[in-house]
UniProtKB/TrEMBL annotation:
Species: Peteryoungia aggregata LMG 23059
Signal peptide extent: 1-25
This protein's name: Rap1a immunity protein domain-containing protein
Key words of the record: Signal
Domain of life: Bacteria
């Protein structure tokens, strides 16, 4: 079960996604290419951080895989480059969706919750 903190973060993230989707609904990932590199890397880091937050509450092995995959320092920058390239290749999709799909390809799917 997600902690109250994780639920709050998730709610904020969804609200941001919805607000950005109303502004950029017609171009999905194309708007991302107009952002400067610092903003692009921040979006990638924030998205990875969100997946880590959720994984920490749902699947510790998945969380460790994401941490190992993303890394720090040069490894982190290298992984961001891979993700940024994938986002450029898949502009018909939301950048966050591309990031999540890549993480799931590397580390496996997030557990589904009934409800």
């Amino acid at each position: 079960m997600l902690s109250e903190f994780a639920k709050s973060i998730s709610t904020i993230y969804v609200a941001l996604l919805i607000s950005s989707s109303t502004s950029f609904a017609e171009d999905k990932g194309a708007y991302f290419q107009k952002l400067d590199e610092t903003a692009q890397r921040a979006l990638v880091s924030n998205s990875v951080g969100m997946t880590l937050t959720i994984a920490s509450e749902t699947d510790k092995n998945l969380m460790r895989c994401i941490v190992d995959w993303y890394g720090t320092g040069e490894k982190k920058r290298s992984q961001q480059n891979v993700v940024l390239d994938l986002i450029r290749q898949h502009q018909d999709f939301w950048p966050e969706s591309v990031i999540l799909a890549h993480i799931q390809k590397i580390c496996g799917k997030f557990p589904s919750r009934g409800g």
